[in-house]
C-alpha cells in the first residue's frame, strides 16, 4: 500500500497544479478560459458524484439537487453580500453552497440511503423530480423560469482581485478544484473511504466486520453533497445566474454520463470524463444540432464495449507500458481507428441527411454541405453512399479487430515472460 | 372520477410492463416511457397512411420488435457487467430515442387525433360531457389487463414466465430457453407500453417531452406499489391517477384553511409563500411526496414483498 505522501504521487499532484496554472497562459481567448472554468466546476461535481457511484456503489439520478440547491443558496448569499448584509469574501462563497448541499444531504440522504441498488436509484430520481417540481412553486426563492441573477463583482478588492475578469474567476475555480480534488482523494484513503468500498462490494460482509452499511452510505452521501454544493457555488460565481434547470433531472443525468464515460472504477476517471464531456458538449453543439444524439450514441457504445470508461481503458495498457511493449499495439490501433472513422463518416452523413430532410427542409432545402462535399439529400445516391461507407467501415473494423487481438496476444506473452523472469 | 380512472388504467398499462420486466430481469427499464412515446409516434405515422384501427395493432407490434432487439443485442450484452450497466444502458437508450424522435418528427407536437368515429360525447353527468374516447380507452385497458391476467395464469407460456421469475435455473433445467423467455417478456412489456402510447397519445399530447413527463410518474407508481408487485402497481396506478387528476381541481391553500379557522396571516412573513401554495399548484409535487412518505413509513411499498 503506497502512502499518501508517496513521492510519485506528490509529483503527479504537482504536475496537475502546474498544468492548471499554466493552461490559461497558453489558451488566452476568453472562449477557452470560460470553457476551462466550466471544466473545473464539472471536475468537482463529477468527482463528488463518483464518491457515490464509484466508491460506494450508489447509482444516483438526483445528484444535481445538491449542486443546484447549493447554487441557489450561494446566489442569495452573493446578493446579500452585494447589499451589504453579509460580510463574506466572494472567494469563500462556495462554502455557502457546500454547507447548503450538506444540509440537504442530511435531510434527503436520511430517506434515500436506507436503500441501495435499484431502489436507491429510483428514490433519488423521485427526490430529484420532487425538488425540481417544488422549484417552480416558490418563485421568490428559485426565481421562477428566469432564475436568480447576481453580480460577482462586489465587496472590497482584495489585493486587486475583484473577479471582474474571466481569468481571475478561472484561478478561483482552479484553486477550489485543486483543494477539492486533494480532499476527495484523501477521503478515499481514510477508513471511511475504505469501508465505502467494502459496502459497495459486499454490504453483508461489511456488516459482519461491524460497520453499519446504511450509516456508511449516509455519511458518504452527506460528504459528497457538500462537494456538489461547492461546485454549485462556483457555478454561481462563474455564470452569475442560476436557474431551476441546474437542479433538474437532465443535469443529474449529465454528471452521471461524465463520471461513467470517464470511468467510475478509478479516482481520476471522472476528471477525464468531466473534461472530455464539457469539451464535447461545447464543441459539438457548435457544429450540429443533433449533438445530443451523437453524445447518446457515444455513451451507449461506451457501455456496450468499455463499461469501465476511459480510465479503465488506460489502466489496461499500464502492464504493456511497464514492459515497454506499448509500441507493438500502435499499428493495429491505427488500423482500428481508421476503420472506426470510416463508419463514423457514414453514420454522420446518414444522420445529418435525415436531419436535413426531416427538420431543416423548409428553411434551407435538401442541398447540404458536409465534409467539404455538396450534395442533394433528396437523391438516392448519398443515402446509398453513406450506407455503403458504413458497411465498408464495418468490414474494415472486423479485420482490424483481429489485428488488435493478435497484437494483444503477443503483448500478453511478453508481459507474462517478464513476470516469470 | 372517470377521468382519473382512465388515467390510472393508462398508468397501469405502463407500470405493469415495467413491473414484469423488473421482477423478471431485475432491470429497471428507463426507456420504458420512451417505448410509450414511440408507440404514440408510430401510431401517428400509421394513422396517416392506414387509419387509426390498423395502428392499434401495427404500432405495438413495431414497439415490441424494437423491445426484442433491445433485449437481444443490448441488455444481453451488458448483462455480464452487472445491473448498474444495464440500468445505464436503458438510460442511454432513452436519451437516444428522444433524440431520434426530435430528428424524425421535430420538436413540436404532432397532429395525432382521436379517430372521428369515437369523437363524440358518450354521456353527460350533470353538465359535464364525457368523451366516448375515454370510454374506449378504459375498454382497451381493461381488455388488455384481462388478457394479461389470463395469459399469465392460464396459459402454458404464462406459467413458464411465472416459473422463470422465481426459479430461472430450474426452468432452464427443464429444457426451456430462459433467455428467450426474458426476450419475450421484454418485448411484451414494450408492447404494452406501445399500446398505452397508441391510446394515450391522442387523448393527451404526442410530443417529444411526453416520455419524460410520464416516465417518472410511472417510476413513482412502481415504487409506491412495491417493486415487482403487479397488484401493488395496479392499486398505486389508480391512487396516483386520482391524486394527479383531482388535485388540479382544488384551489385551497394552507393560508385559506388557516384564515377560515380565524388565524390572521401576515403577508409580510417569511413563510407566507409556503402557506399560499394551493393544492392545484402543488399537484406536480404530490406524487413524489406520496412516494417519499411511503418510503419512510413502509419501505417495501404498498404490496411489495421484498426490499431492494
Write a structural description:
The complex is a heterodimer of chains A (421) and B (308). In chain A, 75% of the residues lie in helices and 3% in strands. Chain A is mostly helical. In chain A, the strands form 2 sheets. Chain A has a two-stranded antiparallel ribbon with strand order 1-2. A two-stranded antiparallel ribbon of chain A has the order 3-4. In chain A, a hairpin with a 2-residue loop joins β3 and β4 (373-376). In chain A, α3 packs antiparallel against α4. Chain B has a domain at 2-211. In chain B, α1 runs parallel beside α5, α2 runs antiparallel to α3 and α5 (132-154) crosses α6 (156-166). Chain B has helices at residues 2-25, 32-49, 52-78, 83-105, 132-154, 156-166, 168-173, 178-201, 210-225, 230-247, 254-260, 272-276, 279-282, 286-297; strands at residues 121-125, 128-131. Chain B has 308 residues and is mostly helical. A two-stranded antiparallel ribbon of chain B has the order 1-2. The two termini of chain B are 34 Å apart. Chain B contains 14 helices and 2 strands, in the order ααααββαααααααααα. At the A-B interface, α5, α6, α11, α13 and α16 of A face α3, α4, α9 and α14 of B.
Poorly predicted runs of 5 or more residues of chain A: none
Number of strands of chain B: 2
- Per DSSP, the total helix count of chain A is 18
How much strand of chain A? under 5%
Range of helix content of chain B: over 70%
Query: What overall geometry of chain B do the principal axes of the alpha carbons give?
Result: globular
pLDDT averaged over residues of chain A: 81
Largest interface: A-B, 46 and 48 residues
List the secondary-structure elements of chain B in sequence, H or E.
Answer: HHHHEEHHHHHHHHHH
Instruction: Please give the largest β-sheet of chain A.
Output: 2 strands, antiparallel
Number of strand elements of chain A: 4
